[in-house]
Amino acid sequence: MFLAESDTRALTGHLPNGDVFAGNVRVTRPHALVTLKLLALFDRHNNIRGPEEAHHDREEARTQAADIVAIVSEQRDLAEFRKKFEEQFKTDPDLGGCVWGIFRDFFRETSSPGFLVYEEFFAAELPAGGETQRENSGGSQSGTSHAVYHSRRCSVIRCHNPTPCRGGKMRTTIDPRDNHKRKETSIR
Fold it and tell me: N or C: which end of the chain has fewer CB atoms below 10 A?
């Protein structure tokens, strides 16, 4: 699926030794890249590699969350991005349900894990000592992170395929136009 959601681009330049280089590289499209980043965020946040990798996995989760927010924030045509994001799951609706569940669980509210590790990403960049992140930003960075992403972007990825990732008994739908009210229905 992800190979199909990529394009080949020509790359030219110079190698470190000064030789001229020309070649083709495959570049993943933004909607597919967000999917890959959501899956990586889930894995790293849940530390599936074990306690010996906990610190590294947390750092990676921060990077994945920051990348997701950056990619979505840079989209110029939000309707087209949303359309392509949804369409990529037509061939694999189970993956779509899993990704929608991750998105929903990680970016629903300011206290959701995706926004918390996004906040940690910025906190890690502050100098040691001196101002705290809250003092530096004049308020809650998590609130700011949420506002940056949510102000215009939450409706970009709206869960139209809320199938649970792990075969659960409930379906949850969230519509940002409805103030993020959660509606659960039993699956029979």
Answer: C
Q: Could you tell me the residue ranges of all domains in the chain?
A: 30-124+131-186
138: DSSP letter: T
For the segment 72-106, what is each residue's pLDDT rounded down to a tens digit? 999 999 899 989 999 999 999 999 999 999 999 99
One-letter amino acid of 79 = A
**3-class SS of residue 105:** helix
Structure tokens at 145: 């992170």
DSSP state of 155: G
Q: Which helix (H) or strand (E) holds 9?
A: strand 6-14
- pLDDT tens-digit profile of 29-80? 999 999 999 999 999 998 878 888 888 999 999 999 999 989 999 999 989 9
The percent of the chain in helix, strand and coil, each rounded to the nearest 5, is: 55, 15, 30
